[in-house]
Amino acid sequence: MNFKSLINVGLIATTLLGVGCTSSANNRGYSKDAEINTKVEMLLSKMTLEEKVGQMNQYNGFYDATGPAPSDGDAKNKYEHLRNGWVGSMLNVRGAKEVRAMQKMAVEESRLGIPMIFGLDVIHGHKTLAPIPLGESASWDLEAIKKSAQVAATEAAAEGINWTFAPMVDISRDARWGRVMEGAGEDTYLGSKIGVARIQGFQGDDLSANNTIAACAKHFAGYGFAEAGRDYNTVDVGTSTLYNVIFPPFQAALDADVKTVMNSFNILNGVPATGNKWLQRDLLKGKWGFNGFVISDWGSCMEMMAHGFAADLKEAAELAANAGSDMDMESYAYVKHLSTLVKEGKVNEADIDDAVRRILTVKYELGLFDDPYKYCDEQREQELIYHEDHKAAVLDMALKSVVLLKNDKQVLPLDKSQKKIAVIGALADDKTSPLGSWRVASDDNTAVSVLEGLKNHNIKYTYAKGADVSVGDVGFQIPVTINNTDKSEFAEAIALARKSEVVVMVLGEHGYQSGEGRSRTNIGLPGVQQELLEEVYKVNQNIVLVLMNGRPLALPWADAHIPAILETWQLGTESGNAIAKTLFGDNNPSGKLPMTFPRNVAQCPIYYNHYNTGRPTGGNGVFWSHYIDESNDPLYPFGFGLSYTSFEYSNLKAKVDGDVVKVSITVKNTGKVAGQEVAQLYIHDKAASVARPIKELKGFEKFELAPNDSKLVEFELTSKELGFYNNEGEFVVEAGDFDIMVGTDSQNVSITSVTL
Ligand code: BGC
After folding, report:
1. N or C terminus: which one in the chain shows less Cβ crowding within 10 Å?
2. From edge to edge, which strands make up the β-sheet containing 293-295?
3. pTM to 2 decimal places
4. Mutate to test the pocket of ligand 1, among 58, 120, 121 (most ligand atoms within 8 A of CB)
């Protein structure tokens, strides 16, 4: 096979690439294990309609964590439903003892004794926390990310959990959206690889093992494209973006055998995802052959009424079930109405059977029928939670996630013998914010703070808070206030800075200023922190700015004035240790931004792989695609990140060789210390039947080089990387000229070209 045979034969290419295969799922079963399929059928044949619907019903456990639930969702009712076999799953029940108690009720008190599946948002660790997902993604280190998910799965499984609502594989280009912290950033290629690494980490090789859990690719689909970055807002996107940007991470998740998919809150081009038949039945389960089950998002079935799509809860149940949404999270729509809808002929029992088959299959694969309490061993729980090995793994992940944004005159790394180090900023003394958002099971105050990290590394410093990040009590359910105006502690901080040799300022967002429901219109430093930074700068310009934040921030002043800037995201349990090691050179930063940092919030959404427009440059005076008051350029581009050493790229070569394009480049460490670099490969299809972005990431490699060492980095581009989805949703590979670019970030690249 060579390119010529693939070119312009979209559907053939689609089949060859395995990206458009028809469903292997059918009434004979969803598992690769025939025995499981037989067991599922046998059980299904014994179930009443109500018991089947029960499997499609999920209830919340201890607390209503993430949104409004219908008022009649009282606990008493739920217990009764449990005994009736009307509850297939619970979320937010955790702890070996607690899960055992609930499971016992389902297994011993319901007629058929079908075990429940227990789900939880295990997003970036369970008790021991890794960096927030956006931070981890900055590592571009798939093995480390997989390991981090393994650690999360091990701890969660030890607490009775057998299913995580992760990874979030939504592509997001808008820093205003608080949930960017939960994903892998703006790029589809990187996001797909990271999603797969996370799924592999969670699910392992054996789903029935007691340290693995089922994963869930979410939110299908388009949730990351909420208009104006406002959470839950309308999503209106065209075919090209859907197929080329939004869908591929889900397709990659399916290839990685993800067991479940969560649909999303948003409407997609007018139709709520939960009631969207095209998305769930035709595409996901039909064309892509998904064999697992689809869970709704929290109350998303009920929310179809507010969307103006369903007249009442009964109709919402009808629409969602017919659209292929298999399990209802906390809308009470299925449990109340689905049996009646079947009896009325509005929902086919065959579709109910299909959903139940999917759910039971995952339960069998998890081994829950062999031993429903296999995840409920209290001794195991005690041994594994906060295990030292887990701390080591999340520290490693944290060290790899730090991104050096600026380092003029090699201010960093700092010298350990430096006498007068001032540390300023409330976040330096914060043991909770570094844990970030989405940490359902973790305990407040369990992160190593920056101050503790410095102490642990025998660094002498003097500390002044200077300013708070936010006002009052900031918690998961509590609205976040960010307009703190208290400057009463400025004077002390300024005085300290004046008499110090170097000032480490730890500024940024509180851990709960990003995450679900945390959209912002101002993505500068919250409160009076910017003012504090400028005041301190007036007395001491030798500042290292340590940023802690859950989203890209727009900090043009800091970039123009502050000599050294270190992006540390929210690094999790070992945060302070990772930051101390990096500040003093025990860790050479190697992270690269997975998301563009704008200079101005008004540039959002801003992303590297945009189209060129018809007027990309200023030849027409004012009439070109630009702002008259701000540059088009980002503050820091996608893929950007410095090191304490330097790398030189040379000798880029690309040639067509049979059915692949072979690319190579030499990278040399030209600095004085060893360091890790991520070589990034981008392509541009210069003229195509559907316009292609100016640049698209299609390969990367992370490697370490000693000073003066060099490495020949090689890539192979296949039709999978060179093709794209046209506006009919067909995958095509087209003849023509391609620019091939390799470099240290999305802007700083060497360029050559090939003709297909
Ligand atoms: C979120 C989901 C999450 C669910 C359960 C929802 O609000 O959108 O991502 O898994 O709550 O906590």
Report:
1. N
2. 216-220, 260-263, 293-295
3. 0.96
4. 121
